[in-house]
Amino acid sequence: MLLKLQLVVATALSGVALVSAQTAGTTTTTWDCCEPACGYTSNLSPGARGPVQSCNKNNGPAAAGAQNACFASSGNLAFSCDKYQPIIVNSTFSYGFAGHGDTATSTCCKCYEFTWTSGAAKGKSMIVQAINAGGITDTDFDIYTPGGGVGDYNACTAQYGAPSGGWGRQYGGVTSDSQCSELPSNLQAGCHWRWEWAGGDVNEWQITYKQVNCPSQLTSLSGCTPASI
Questions:
Q1: Catalytic annotation on 201?
Q2: Which of 29, 31, 99, 106 has its C-alpha lying 20 to 30 A from 83's C-alpha?
Q3: 102 has catalytic annotation
């Protein structure tokens, strides 16, 4: 299943400037299908050009003026996009997207590199772009991972017919690789990423992280580019 994930060349890393000091934090997982908070121009961090792209029910571009599917039930609805699943570069490095921080205007569209210091992925790294915020601590990265748990809000039932509490646990999602088969086929590769590439649940694993300039592999998908650092 890992081979179904989009592969990118490792040479892309050469264009990413790593500049900030390391900070300790944790990782969690999410996939609530809601329109990302960074999909609103008013939520962008200073200097960011965007907003983050949202999708319709079928993962095409959301209609202009569409409302967040987590807070509306009719009319044109905006959801998260299936393209926000993790992207494998090699056996020790992935790209991805995440929620980060409680204040959207502080983090929206910024990118961060982190390395796990505990859990089965200890020593492995990611660069993620923040596309969501709110209800997340300033040191937590809520990685967008299909089957990662819907948390407080659930648009996956409206988008995919998921159970009312999402797939698996409401917080944390599925508990095994085999449960990924319960997800729609377009989301299964990202679900397998957690168990097959990261090697386990990912929730509450410790990391060290720093802010970095965003690689084009992420901004080309999100449609949002932050100010350079």
A1: no
A2: 106
A3: no
